[in-house]
Amino acid sequence: MVEFIARWLCHVGISPLILSRGYAGGDEVNMLRRHLIWTPTKFGVGANRAAVASQFIQRYGYVDTRESSWYRKQQLGHELNVSVDSENIGAVVLDDAMQHWSLWRDLDIVMVNGLTLWGNLQLLPLGPLREPLTALKRADAVVIHHADLVSENILKDIESTIRGIKESIPLFLTKMDPTYLFEVGNTNANIPLTALHKATILCVSAIGSAESFVKKIQKMGARYVDRVDFSDHHAFHVKDIELIRAKLRELEGKFGSKPIVVITEKDYDRDPEILKQLYPFKTFVLCSALMVMSYKGSTEDSFKNFLKDHLRLKFPAEN
């Protein structure tokens, strides 16, 4: 979602700054840097995000979005087809920051994983929640992620729970659409998803929702799909590589051909070099893009309009 919003900001002529704590070596930030390399997006990493933001604004300057080419074109009723005005920062996007109280926000968007939801409803360390569900009252919108992997009945239950907390809150659905693969060591080679068809696959991941990753691979027509899961942000070590290689040899003996390892982009960007040690087994990286699904009148366009309207709410009336 951070990347989606950053790309939209660039598209409408606003240069964004992404702020992140940079957990576990900054795998997510590394991935975002790679994806947004040809945009004016800037990245600030550090626990004190207010201080980091201040440093970036002092270095690059700040531009009021009312002065951007996007706002001027909106006032004139022109189509959105503009370039970013300058290196000046026009918006700040915080990653994973609902509990970051030291920064004032124009907009809070809460992402809910449709597969894992709220677990046992307990707060850390007894459960997965950082705050009670009633904290959703502070949100300006809720996005149900991986919505394509759950049933309509479950979606209805999730919506009912959310609306029971804040009835009028805007609700959107998203999914991750696989786009292509690349092989470890060659990020420029776009390999079609059909390369996994009828293959024996070992999914290896150290992410928060391995289930969604595996389910996507299972839908690609593979002959057989197995998995090795690590904890979120886990840094692979030599012993992990040996464990994975042992599993690969087991699958090779069972099916008579070399299996293919498939990992996520986050796992790749955490440490690209160590994954080369899986050779001679091929290791592919699955690339995906976030898509907004149509749901009860909510679409990608309506989500962008929601973002646009919240920007407009901060503008004073024209004289």
TrEMBL record:
Question: MF terms per GO, please?
Answer: ATP binding; lipid-A 4'-kinase activity
Key word Oxidoreductase present in the record? no
According to UniProt, the name of this protein is: tetraacyldisaccharide 4'-kinase
Pathway(s) where this gene product acts: Glycolipid biosynthesis; lipid IV(A) biosynthesis; lipid IV(A) from (3R)-3-hydroxytetradecanoyl-[acyl-carrier-protein] and UDP-N-acetyl-alpha-D-glucosamine: step 6/6
Coiled-coil regions listed? none
- Species of provenance: Arachis duranensis (Wild peanut)
EC number(s)? 2.7.1.130
Write out the entry's keywords from A to Z.
Answer: ATP-binding, Kinase, Lipid A biosynthesis, Lipid biosynthesis, Lipid metabolism, Nucleotide-binding, Transferase
Q: Which residues form the signal peptide?
A: none
Pfam families referenced in this protein's UniProt entry, alphabetically: LpxK
Gene Ontology terms, cellular component aspect? membrane
UniProt cross-references to InterPro entries, sorted A to Z: LpxK (IPR003758)
Q: Does the keyword Ribonucleoprotein apply?
A: no
Q: Which gene encodes it?
A: LOC107481860
Taxonomic superkingdom: Eukaryota
Q: Which processes are annotated in GO (biological process)?
A: lipid A biosynthetic process
